[in-house]
Design a protein that fits this description.
The protein is mainly alpha-helical. It is built from twelve helices and no strands.
Length: 225
């Protein structure tokens, strides 16, 4: 037991030092402004609430009620992965995904970097509101087919502003960033629709939409580019 505690403390200390290093090199405010200063950045008020609900339902169900690290999601993911004997579920929160996108996109991520992400996440949630972070998440993601951010994706796929998305369209966009090369509509249309249906089921299970709205969204045609 003592050995486990000592090893855990060592790993956390390494993660803390990694966090301090990247924050010193690029403060969080500077990293965030790289996105918020863009001309096509969309504020929370300019994003359809169905998109927000879709993201929360499929990525981080306790997002608006939870503070800090989601230990419940992590333990559930570990349990489900052990049962399946493969990695089928992640335990990261929306804020952790933002931390990863801000500092570790395209870089190797081991345990040290993932612990650093938790410290970055805690800073993000201290400095920004949940609404601002959801908007940042929506704007920083890649949606396939050359579309970066929700405004480009909404305009490019549907010819709409993000505030005007239907439930079906919102669910589709919420699902793509999980694997944009697989779910982009030009080459992964069938997979994208399957992912959209999963998001819609999660929205129904979390009571964001009614059974009727679910059925209408499933039946709504999404045109292939």
């Amino acid at each position: 037991m003592i050995g486990i505690l000592l090893f855990s403390s060592y790993v956390i200390l390494k993660g803390r030092r990694e966090y301090q290093k990247v924050i010193n090199e690029k403060p969080i405010e500077q990293a965030v402004r790289a996105y918020t200063d863009k001309e096509d950045y969309v504020s929370y008020e300019e994003i359809d609430i169905d998109y927000v609900n879709a993201v929360v339902a499929v990525e981080d169900q306790r997002y608006f009620s939870r503070k800090g690290f989601d230990w419940i999601a992590l333990i559930r993911a570990m349990f489900n992965n052990m049962l399946a004997r493969k990695n089928i579920e992640g335990g990261s929160t929306i804020s952790q995904q933002i931390a990863k996108n801000l500092y570790y996109v395209g870089k190797p991520r081991g345990v040290t970097e993932k612990i650093a992400e938790v410290f970055i996440m805690l800073d993000l949630e201290k400095q920004y509101s949940k609404e601002d972070l959801v908007a940042l998440y929506a704007n920083m993601n890649y949606y396939g087919d050359g579309y970066w951010g929700i405004r480009q994706a909404s305009n490019g796929y549907f010819g709409k502003e993000p505030i005007d998305l239907s439930i079906a369209q919102a669910a589709l966009l919420a699902g793509i960033p999980n694997a944009p090369s697989a779910y982009q509509l030009s080459t992964g249309y069938d997979l994208a629709i399957s992912r959209q249906h999963k998001v819609l089921r999660r929205m129904l299970e979390e009571d964001y939409i009614t059974q009727y709205e679910y059925q209408m969204a499933i039946q709504e045609e999404i045109k292939k580019p």
